[in-house]
């Protein structure tokens, strides 16, 4: 699930452009569906991948799997090979960061974050899903869609409502012009078929899979359609398969509002540093007061109330970055310095040619996986109802998804997720995950009788495994090493309870997780948003 767009921007700054090199053999039609040719591996242009000896290439797949001899597209793929003797090799590990629309090419580095070198027994496979990043073609509709100083998200007048409806409809039309036939083939099921083509191209009988956020839904659908091809799966930040996708966004609104209350409490705790209020209520009141002021008079003519909301949203996703948001807001309130807010906004909502790639794919997937309500009156009624309870993000989220009202590609029917034939898998979630609320993990656990759920009790971070919490990360390592999982308990609850990712202490110097070439797990975490 992806409402916040910081993912691609933050990791892009850390890692630089990720472009795969290498040719691709011509594909042929096989007895077991589409049979791709082998990937011709070459060096990676990306510095972080190159420093690790990663290999990069392109995988050719059909645009339409119902027409395998028709037009093709290319997927960018990276591989960091196993570091153990052949006898200890445990196969390929596909990784997806979520979104939909997140670039996964650099996530082949994830294996180095698994404790005890348990990741060394796998080939870690990163890939940019169809339409994303370095895959060809990559969809972009309007790189300046998230321009500065937009009118109020909250449609308090008919004029505001008309503005946002027109803006959303124009983006949908721009995507129709830019995407062409690609728009018809960007459903979750298309990417799942790509994953199986990747399995075949890698010569693997089965895959292992590590999915974050929307990536958990890919894992759910893949394992439902190809249960015999699953070996091990780690699904962190689980999409609720009952709620795709309109209802899921309404669920998010309530959860983000709750998490902002938790964040405001933390800011108030450090009033001696930030000077924003001594209570959560005072900080909250200040936030909404400043938002109202910025709507009337945007800072520097660019950072308005909507931009302030978008900056604060990241604090609802994860504890990484709490300090940066508080510092930027403090500088604005106390010193009239908006540069920090602008920096954070630009990181989260980049502008320029191709900058909307993640957003375009997010819509292309969610708008066509399932039919959204066709009448705005339905949206209005539902969002007005939720807004009364959760004002922070509700209308921002509604307009983020509003191009689905007029999306120029037909919607399909979601796969009914069923894990009864799937081997034991590991599920992970923090209790107060806002992007993929915790009830979704319980529902996935219910549908997968051999799944085990690890809960970061009380935490607010979304998809934060392999971030240094030993209880969680050691569970991942044990599972990847031997297949061992905690015992499954009776009832509708988690099977192992762990500490959450801790709230930061502003006076403490942030430590760095292991990782060469300047890649920190926190950087990867910011890349793993779903919205």
What would you say this structure looks like, in words?
- α6 (246-269) packs across α9.
- By secondary structure, the chain is an alpha/beta fold.
- It folds into 2 domains: 6-139 and 186-244 and 414-503 and 510-527, 3-Layer(aba) Sandwich (Rossmann fold), CATH 3.40.50; 140-184 and 245-413, no CATH class.
- The strands form 2 sheets. Strands 3-4-6-5-7-8-9-10-11 form a 9-stranded mixed beta sheet, with helices on both faces. A two-stranded antiparallel sheet has the order 1-2.
- β10, α16 and β11 form a beta-alpha-beta unit.
- The longest helix is centred in the middle third of the chain and has 24 residues, at 246-269.
- The protein has 17 helices and 11 strands.
- 39% of the residues lie in helices and 11% in strands.
- Mean pLDDT is 92; it is low at 5-31, 508-519 and 527-531.
Structural class by sheet pairing and helices: alpha/beta
SS summary, helix count: 17
Strand content: 5-15%
Alpha carbon gap, first and last residue: 3 Å
Concise overview:
This protein is an alpha/beta fold and 531 residues long. Helices cover 39% and strands 11% of the residues. The chain has 2 domains: 6-139 and 186-244 and 414-503 and 510-527, Alpha/Beta hydrolase fold, catalytic domain (Rossmann fold), CATH 3.40.50; 140-184 and 245-413, no CATH class.
Q: What key attributes describe this structure?
A:
about 525 residues, alpha/beta, Rossmann fold, 2 domains, nine-stranded mixed beta sheet, two-stranded antiparallel sheet, 17 helices, globular, disordered C terminus
